[in-house]
Amino acid sequence: MLAFIESIDIDLFFLINRAGQNVLFDMFMPFMSNLSNFYVPLGVGWLALILKKGSRYKIVALSFLLLITLSEGLSSDILKPAFDRPRPYHAQSNVHHYDRSLKTWQITPELEAVVRGESRSLPSSHATNIFAAAFFLSVSLRKSWPVFYLIAVLVGYSRVYLGVHYPFDVLAGALAGSLCGLVLMGLSRYLIAAFEDRRQNAEAEGARGPQESNAEGSEDETYREPTQ
Q1: What is the mean pLDDT of residues 88-105?
Q2: CA 20 to CA 81: how far, in whole Å?
Q3: Are 17 and 161 in contact (CB under 8 A)?
Q4: Alpha carbon of 34 to those of 114, 203, 211: distances in Å?
Q5: Longest CA pairwise span in the chain (Å)
Q6: How far apart are CA 170 and CA 161, in angstroms?
Q7: 40: confidence class by pLDDT, cuts 50, 70, 90
Q8: pLDDT tens digits, one per residue of 146-179
Q9: Residue 209: is its pLDDT beyond 70?
Q10: Residues near 109 by Cβ (< 8 Å), separated by ≥ 6?
Q11: Which of 21, 55, 92, 224 is 20–30 Å from 4 (CA)?
Q12: Strand, coil or helix: what is 21?
């Protein structure tokens, strides 16, 4: 069964990586795969949340940082060592591969043996992180969810097109990232509700204090010492 699933995964990989190869994607997919291209807009949005008045926005901003830490740790430190799956260019021949350091495309040579231990493939950390962010932001900013998921899908597709991940690596990353997003969204909502209850209780206590003082003052004014 696992061999059958892997064969489907490899067929899908070459369908995207080789049959889907074109000049436009050769220029566009390296850009989408470079997550640093999204640091500035994400940083501006995060800073806007931090500076915005209200504890709920600060909780969402801090939860987002915790989310990326969680998704990266889950993918790179737990799941990848557990599965220990070699990347496509270490397990398959004739892969349309993008060399990130040289910024050039190449077709990998025929492999004599699978290379293990150099770089792991399952799951895609890019997919884990970007789908975690897409899930979290889509719940927080519901009107913009198509934009977030369009970016996530393109990033995931780019990892296969660049020859560094299989399609099921991306799918596994999407599921793991969405789970992380769900957990952190639940945590942030709990904290927001707790802070909101605390604020309302403080306001109620503050409003009750002056009323009780006024009531005590009125009693003092109406009281008269009885005459003998």
Answers
A1: 93
A2: 30
A3: yes
A4: 27, 47, 60
A5: 117
A6: 11
A7: confident
A8: 999 999 999 999 999 999 999 999 999 999 999 9
A9: no
A10: 93, 94
A11: 21
A12: coil
Tell me the C-alpha to C-alpha distance, in Å, between residue 67 and each of 13, 124, 176, 187. Answer: 29, 16, 12, 10
User: Is the Cβ–Cβ distance between 132 and 84 less than 8 Å?
Assistant: no
Question: How much of the chain, in percent, has pLDDT values that exceed 70?
Answer: 90
Residues 6+ apart with CB under 8 A from 42: 133
3-class SS letters over 41-87: HHHHHHHHHHHCCCHHHHHHHHHHHHHHHHHHHHHHHHHHHHHCCEC
Q: What's 87-119 look like in SS3?
A: CHHHHCCCCEEEECCCCEEEECCCCCCCCCCCC
CA distances in angstroms from 97 to 26, 69, 110, 151, 214, listed in the order given = 10, 28, 13, 21, 78
Supply the angle between the helices 145-161 and 23-33 in degrees, to the nearest 10.
110
Structure tokens at 62: 């801090």
